[in-house]
Amino acid sequence: MNAIIRNTEQNSSLINFVFLISIVFLPLMFISDGVSKVLAIYGSSFSRISLITRFAFETIIVFWIILKVNYSIVKYLTFIFILLVFFLLGQSSIGNINDISESFITFNKYIYLFLVYLFLREIIQLSEAQCNIVFKLLYFLFFINILCVLCGYMFKINFFEAYYSKEYRFGYNGVFLAPNESSYIFMSMVSLFYYRAIYENKSKVILILSILASLITGMKAVYLFLILLLLFHAINHMKKKYLFILISFSILLFGYLIRYLQSDEFKSLIALFIRLYEEKGLLHMLLTGRDDLLINESPLVFKKWTFINYLTGGVNIKIYSIEMDFFDLLLFFGLLGSILYVFIFFQTFINGLLKHAFAKFFIFSILALSFFGGHFLYSPSSAVYFSLVIIYFRMSK
């Protein structure tokens, strides 16, 4: 009996520990992104404060895993260990074992998404009051970023630009540093606000503001996601009351677009896309040149591969990167490693949500867009936001 009581108390302590770390690190990671961006803009020799914060978060997760360890966690970590074996085999077979540090960082980024979810899924066991605190903090932080995006656009604030070092690119992403990775944060949060507004009849104001902010990001992936979301809504929820909201919003959006279409930023963005299209066609424009990387770099990787590499992968990440998630995954982990990675991803994020229509739409839309745009599977920045959205869906299904 005493052993049972001790186990119960330990589990309760570990769950409360997850709550405490969540409410501390959510704002900490948000602030560290902003600090990193300031340092990057002003040319600091070291600007990745956000990486230190996320490494500290990961260290705490590892510490929690050691304390929490049970059969479920051991089984989960066994799959990740097999991935590590594939990774080491691939790196050793291309002779990169002595210069493995950069590739190991990338491996860590690939598994970071799984470790973050493993930790944050304990939120499901929190009390309702504690859950509300975690998610309200998430809403508040992203609302701050929405205001940063809108203010950045209205007052031309360089700090809030997504492509602050590229004058020919238009877009605002607020305090987030990397535009490619922040695009998945915007998609995740728009999806969360959409779900709350449409499925749970929560306020639609934050949804409208998040969509407006997304339209100012200048990111093709975000624009494509909004189109997919509109199609999903039209097919599944086009009832009279929602039709009125959609028409009202479309009128406001049309007014905004008229102003935007006349702006210098839009003209420069269109000029860039036209130049890419004229150079090498529609696919080259949509992939922003990634098709060249795929065609030119893949043969250079395969040239060094043996049979074992086709199974376990093996690439020097400092030299070769396609920036298309599916192909990067194959090059990094090989055929067997990629199948295992997809299996872990399915078990972690998709299993149990196959009957959840909007969750399926959300996950597969992001995977489809990452197929063309990359930076999702190995993005530490978006891992927390994506995981929390999935957890929210699991709690409300």
TrEMBL record:
Calcium among keywords: no
Keywords: Membrane, Transmembrane, Transmembrane helix
Keyword check for Transmembrane: yes
Name recorded for this polypeptide: O-antigen ligase domain-containing protein
Domain of life: Bacteria
TM spans (from-to): 12-31, 51-69, 76-94, 100-120, 132-155, 175-195, 207-235, 241-258, 326-350, 362-393
